[in-house]
Amino acid sequence: MQSQDVAPRPAPGSPADRAVDVEQAEAALVEHYPRLVRLAYLVLPPGLGRDRRVLTAHALVQRALPRGRSSAPVIPAQSTARDGGPGYAYVRLQVVRTALEAGLPLRRRAWPRRAQLPPLLPQVWGLRLFPRAGGADELALDQELAVLSGPARAACVLRGLEKLPDGDVREVLGGAGVDDAEAALREADSLSARYALLDSPEFDPCALQARPTDLMRRRRHGRAALAAAAALAVCGALVALPDGGWGADGAAAPVYARNPAAEAALDPGRLVRVSPAAWKTSARTDFSVWPARGDSTGDRALLRRALAVWARPGATVRVSATPGTPTGGPSGPPQLLFAGDADTARVVILYDGLRIARYAEPREGTAGAALDFARVDGATGAEAAAVVLDRADGNVRYLTAPWVTEAAERDLSKPGAGLMDLTLTDGITSPLASPATRAGACTTWNVLELTDASGPHLVSDLGELVPARLTAGRPTRPKEATGAEALRTWAPFACSLGDVRGQGVRTVNAWAYARQPLPDDSGSASWVCTRAETWRGDGTRVLAQFRVPGGLFGAAVAKAGDVPACGPRDPHVLAGVLWRSKGGSWYLLAAGDKDTGSVRATGGVSGSAEDNLLAVRTEQGARAELRGTLEDGRSIGGLR
């Protein structure tokens, strides 16, 4: 439940510099704990991640008590009409100071401050905790707070949450160690219209949701721990044996020997760098002929950090991978595709022949580093034409292949809307709106059109490192989805791409397999089958979709996974739907592809047709089994 606590105001006439003992501070902390934790959560750097921010905010507030009697700061608690003591002002100042310290970059040859380290207490094992999701306004505010400096975030929170006037904000910031409070206030002015949102449940670290951590990774760690314990027991037994142990070790390396191949994979000097002109003479059109781009390809320290994190990601690194993509270190020196700045991050993109690995860290420090993987084995042509460089504010930018000559943005749901050209700078596109991270109802779906010597290609961001290629036509002969007919086929069903976000999708094909006259002179409906193929092979997703005349979007009427239907191995499909005519009558409609010789319905509805289209009058809620017979005599079932 959202806390309605308000910060107290010192009692009128109380001396501002009177001593504060532990009991006073503890009473203020307990009474206003939800507000203090919210304050800490908002001031902490968003790069920590929501789970660590929640635990760190609680830890900072719980450590804010004085060790003995301390002088109260000459700072009012809040300009409200409520009475209180100096205890709250003291605790609040400690929370602001430590939250600002937590955002400072770690320095070499200097001990980190306690607030910069992960909290020892509280601890939660096996769960990730984060506040409830808010709306678009809260998300926008969170993104805007993320780009502010720590003192500016503190100024926003003291103004908006604590309702302090600017003079008191300056004193709080000065007491917390901020050198230039005026600059922080000026930077915070841009968010003055959004202060009311700071009380939103989106920023309440006391009302939390829980989700499990990476279960597969926990299982692997458990197995590794058991293996390590077993190895330790064996080593102990060997130590107790006479010299020579149980015999020769054969080809095994000596204990604790360093593996040369593993060392080479972590050496920035051995990274594979392809000539910028290699793609022009090579017969290959894949990631192996991409040159290294970016303004930091010579930054050995950055490259070393990226390689080290790939091999041994720490507990604070956010690791993500498309389904079926291994996350282990490279077996040898990988190929460098990009190293440089992208918005507020420093990015390194690497390729090892099987995977694309993207390492990103803040421009200042390494807290909040992220490591993303995508499987790309066998990618060629349009499948190897672009990689996501960065995402920010709902937009995405791509690093494109060196053979890409033009880039443009298109709304797939509006085939007649035309293209919006994107600039290409050293292969990097200007930002375009990403449909993969958008919340709410789908009304548009923006895709990227890339042009090379073979013509235009269409790809869509599905929330992963590599966009999915879009095609249209019969599964045995799919074509690029850039022609007028292909765009008309895709338009009503563009939003169905949201069903395969984050699934490791390689290509999605849309096949308009039938057109059916509707009963009661209601026009003709279109049947389209979409099939999403994945990089790993399994996990395919097939949707049969139906659209009536005048409908803006189609509707998915049947869904199946890991089936050959609607694919190159079995280019056939049969699906049905209950449909209500303009006259109010209900019908079972079914359609197969052109190779379907007959269709039969059994169960709750009985009927048959000697071609690929069936329309049988029935009642609302009726259920039926569909069977079809192909012209070669083979039987097929309805997709469901």
Could you describe the 3D structure shown?
The chain is α+β, with helices and mostly antiparallel strands. It contains 13 helices and 33 strands. The radius of gyration is 30 Å and the shape is globular. The two termini are 42 Å apart. Strand 24 and strand 25 form a beta hairpin. The strands form 9 sheets. Strands 14, 15, 19, 20, 21, 22, 23, 24, 25 and 26 form a 10-stranded mixed sheet that branches. A 5-stranded mixed sheet has the order 7-11-10-9-8, with helices on one face. Mean pLDDT is 85; it is low at 1-17, 74-84 and 238-257.
The helix content is 10-25%
Strand runs, count: 33
Termini gap:
42 Å
Shape: globular
- Main sheet makeup: 10 strands, mixed
What would the average pLDDT be, to the nearest integer?
Answer: 85
Q: Strand percentage, roughly?
A: 25-35%
What tags apply to this protein structure?
single chain, 640 residues, alpha+beta, five-stranded mixed sheet, 33 strands, 23% helix, globular
Quick recap:
With 640 residues, this protein is an alpha+beta fold.
Topology:
Elements: E1 9-10, E2 19-20, H1 22-31, H2 33-43, H3 50-62, E3 70-71, E4 83-84, H4 86-102, E5 127-131, H5 136-146, H6 150-160, H7 166-175, H8 181-188, E6 208-212, H9 215-240, H10 260-265, H11 278-281, H12 300-311, E7 318-321, E8 335-342, E9 345-351, E10 355-362, E11 370-375, E12 386-392, E13 395-400, E14 406-411, E15 419-422, E16 424-425, E17 428-429, E18 432-433, E19 446-452, E20 455-460, E21 468-472, E22 479-480, H13 484-490, E23 505-517, E24 524-534, E25 541-547, E26 555-561, E27 574-580, E28 586-592, E29 596-603, E30 607-609, E31 613-618, E32 624-630, E33 635-637
Parallel strand pairs: 1-4, 7-11, 21-23
Antiparallel strand pairs: 2-3, 5-6, 8-9, 9-10, 10-11, 12-13, 13-18, 14-15, 14-19, 16-17, 19-20, 20-21, 21-22, 23-24, 24-25, 25-26, 27-28, 28-31, 29-30, 29-32, 32-33
